[in-house]
Each structure stands twice: as C-alpha cells, then as structure tokens.
From TrEMBL:
Manner of cofactor binding, per the entry note: Binds 1 zinc ion.
Organism superkingdom: Bacteria
Protein name: Endoribonuclease YbeY
Keywords: Cytoplasm, Endonuclease, Hydrolase, Metal-binding, Nuclease, Ribosome biogenesis, rRNA processing, Zinc
Localization, UniProt: Cytoplasm
Entry EC number(s): 3.1.-.-
Coiled-coil positions: none
Binding site for Zn(2+): H121, H125, H131
One matching Pfam family: YbeY
Organism name: Altererythrobacter arenosus
C-alpha cells in the first residue's frame, strides 16, 4: 500500500515516517492491506478541518480524533489482484491534531504513539473492519490494533487483555 500524506496544523515531527511505519505494520496483521496497488490518503490536520468533514460527511457537528472514508468494499479489497491493474484508492483518513493531543495527554501517552494507534485504527476501517455493529467485530478489530501496535513497541491502548 502506498500513502499520500498531507500535513497541516501539526507540530514539527517526522509524521510521514510514523505513518509509513504504521501502515507497513498494519499490513502485517491485515494482509489485505499489503496489496501494492492500494493507495490511501492520510491528512494530518486541525480540529476545525475534521469538524467540517465530520459535519459534511457524517452529519456530526463536532470534531473527532480520526475519520476514515473507505472507497472499496471488503470483498473487492480481498479479491484485488496485486499484480494487474491500475492503482486502487482504498480511502481517506483524517487526524485532528488538537483532539489527538488532548487524548494523548489524558491517556498519559505520547502524541506519536496515539497518532500511530489512530492511523492503525483508520486503516483497519478502510479495510472493512468495524467496531460498531457487534461486540465480536469490535473485539476482532481491537485484537488487530493491539497486534500491530505491539509490533511497534506501543502498549495495548485498551488495557490488559489477559
């Protein structure tokens, strides 16, 4: 998978490298994301921009930490030929800086670790995973997130799972 990354309204840092590591590791736990034809856009932006996107596309008049807009159905993603055809747009992800920074401080984790978690979370949404419809789906998605984050040396954001 290739990422098209745009950074505006975030502090100085190597957000591009962080996002690329997160994407590579997420593809290790969700092989459908390892397809070289896939392209995903990732926008590091402000609460105001995410608020506007959330209002326009989700009818929710508030900012949130991460938004994801899938462009492929899961069945199409898993059957996408990796060797033949043009690039395929997987979807878009937007991260809101102020909300991410506040949540990271509240959780006592670095902004980098929290942003990594939200990128993994957003990519799994683009891959067709969800946590809204059932507890089983939520648990399955969380297990993938935890596995990807563990590979990156980031603690389980959901607490002990033992």
């Amino acid at each position: 998978m290739n990422l098209d990354i745009d950074i505006e309204g975030w502090p100085a840092g190597d957000w591009q490298a962080l996002a690329e590591r997160a994407a590579e590791t997420t593809a290790e736990v969700e092989p459908a994301l390892a397809n070289p034809r896939l392209v995903a856009s990732l926008l590091f932006t402000t609460d105001a921009e995410v608020h506007a996107l959330n209002r326009e596309w989700r009818a929710r008049d508030k900012p949130t930490n991460v938004l994801s807009f899938p462009m492929l159905e899961r069945v199409d993603l898993v059957h996408l030929d990796p060797d033949e055809g043009p690039p395929e747009m997987l979807g878009d992800i937007a991260l809101a800086h102020e909300t991410c920074a506040r949540e990271a401080a509240e959780k006592g984790v670095s902004l980098q670790d929290h942003a990594t978690h939200l990128i993994v979370h957003g990519l799994l949404h683009l891959a067709g995973h969800d946590h809204v419809d059932s507890d089983a789906d939520a648990e399955a998605m969380e297990k993938l997130e935890i596995a990807a984050l563990a590979k990156l040396g980031i603690a389980d954001p959901y607490g002990d799972r033992e």
